[in-house]
Fold:
Amino acid sequence: MKKAIFHLFILIVIISPLLASCSSDGEIDKVGMLVEHSVNDQTWGSKGYQGLLQIKDQFNVDVYFKEGIQTQLDVNRSVDEFVQQGVNLIFGHSSSYGKYFDTIHASYPDVQFVYFNGGYEGENVTSLNFNSNAMGFFAGMVAGTMTQTNEVGIIGAYEWQPEIEGFYEGVKYQNPNANISMNFVNDWDNVERALEIFSVMDEEGVDVFYPAGDSFSLEVVKEVQASSKYAIGFVTDPSDVVGSTVLTSTLQHVDKLYLHAAELFDNNELSGGIFTYDFQDDVISLGEFSPDVPDAYQKKINQEIEAYINTGLLPNERD
Structure:
């Protein structure tokens, strides 16, 4: 009897460390991310990947990602593979994943699904939304001030983007005499089409551009620099590549939202729902100003942003 107890004790001593090594300190086991296109687009996809790596570092967990996931079948296969690997927190890095997750979430009750800028929700489905109108508005004010020809151009991915509406209103608020040219690529990544639109606007005298799309934004900004004109950066700040060409940038710190969601989940505080974030939450901001933007005007914009943070009202709503 004593011999059997001794053997059982030895077995527990051997197995206990193995069990400890298989569990995480909290709710997160492993984390997965699905991306429609690429994590190397230097804007939206890249920022999401940075967030995934921050989760890896902070929680010391394994992370996985899959690119080019664009259909329900792609999502089903990827989620099943993630779950087989022990993933229990999955990020879908666009609004399109809301519908896909809504279709399958009931089959994976132990997995929390998180996606961005959508209206689907459930007990284990969370939508994190950026209120992008304000960042567009303040950048539009800068564009309206800095244009010399009174010609401002918007090269958007899609007409429904809230930052585009905000940008338009900001330009008009600051400079009612400005003419705003607007055209849409109808794709986040069609660089060729975006550059064609740029060429037309460039010939028409536009001297401040807002290329609001993922993969094509930086490529357009490079052309703007070559034409000795100005641009507004989108999602990330490209000023380290093109310098003073970028007057400022409309920044969405999606990497911070990744980490925030992971922290909530790890604390058992992420139960699903729709949540919206803005300047007040430190996940939206303007980028550094170009030295070509007068110091006095930089100060004015920063004061307007502070007033918005305090009141929730844009300048045209306070007047």
